[in-house]
Design a protein that fits this description.
With 296 residues, the protein is α+β, with helices and mostly antiparallel strands. It is built from ten helices and eleven strands. The termini are close together. The protein binds L-homoserine.
């Protein structure tokens, strides 16, 4: 039996739309066994599709198809700690797990790069699947069907406060809210910040993150879809976050904080239930995952 563990991921990191992403200390775990039928179950009561449309199975199948190997079925179990449709990479975790699990069952015929390219083709963009697979802070470009990524470890002195609301937001809906065209000014606003955010993470200059994670391409269009989103930004900033951004397509709001700032979390936990606008959010204290997906 193969066991694959995959971290949660936080994509975009503000200005790096469809490019930047980082891996965090919350994990889904999957097991894979060869089987002559499709047998999929969830070990924690979370509802998951149990047929050929299951995303883990579909992703595993893509590996069999790429290698030209017939697939009759698989026995898959899923443990789902990453909340679904909250902007924390639960879909990417399924895709990466399916690909890594199938590749391990078939004797590791695909390279990491081939697997990352396949995962990106299934997901449509690399900013969640790359850190899910590699761990750390990952910058990626998807160019003519090829993924180009650089991974850097995230400083262990950082922590991440994930403010997760009690409702789901489908990525398809959050992407549909975006305009087809953006101005040259907005493009420059973001490309300069995405570059600065990358340099700031690499160099450890976290005083730059506040300005570097500001965005003009997606957050202003998505915030109206996130009940309490504006107030959540305000609270996290008031509590002294280094940076605040919408995690992936939302609805989770992510704050970057110094790891030793326990007071940030204590004050956030106290403040959320006291606010009518924010009481549907729960804060999770997450740490960097610099390992990425593991296969045993
Ligand atoms: N970059 C993606 C988006 C991440 O913002 O739509 C969510 O999959």
């Amino acid at each position: 039996m193969i066991t694959v563990t995959v971290p949660a991921t936080s994509a975009n990191v503000g200005a790096g739309f469809d490019s930047l992403g980082l891996a965090l200390s919350m994990h889904n775990a999957f097991t894979f066994e060869e089987c002559d039928r499709i047998r999929i179950s969830s070990v924690d009561g979370t509802h998951v599709p149990t047929g050929a449309n299951n995303l883990v199975y579909r992703s595993a199948r893509a590996v069999y198809d790429q290698l030209g190997i017939p697939l009759r079925g698989l026995r898959i179990t899923q443990r789902n700690d990453i909340p679904m449709a909250r902007g924390l990479g639960s879909s990417s975790a399924c895709i990466v797990a399916g690909i890594l699990g199938a590749n391990a069952l078939l004797g590791n015929k695909l390279t990491s790069r081939q697997m990352l390219t396949l995962a990106t083709a299934i997901e449509g963009h690399p900013d969640n699947v790359a850190p899910a697979m590699l761990g750390g802070f990952v910058t990626s470009v998807y160019d003519e069907g090829q993924v180009y990524s650089v991974k850097k470890n995230i400083d262990e002195q950082l922590a991440f406060a994930a403010f997760v609301p009690d409702f789901r937001l489908l990525t398809s809906k959050a992407r549909a809210a975006l305009p087809d065209m953006v101005s040259h000014k907005d493009a420059v606003y973001n490309l300069s910040r995405a570059a600065l955010a990358t340099a700031a993470f690499c160099d450890g200059d976290y005083s730059l993150l506040g300005v570097a994670t500001k965005d003009s391409l997606h957050q202003k269009y998505r915030l109206p879809l996130i009940d309490g989103g504006d107030e959540m930004f305000e609270l996290a900033q008031d509590l002294g976050a280094l940076a605040v951004y919408i995690s992936g397509a939302g609805p989770t709001i992510m704050a970057v904080v110094p790891r030793d700032d326990q007071e940030f979390f204590a004050r956030a936990q106290e403040a959320l239930p006291q606010s009518e606008k924010l009481k549907h959010f729960t804060v999770y204290r997450l740490l960097p995952d610099n390992t990425g997906a593991t296969v045993e």
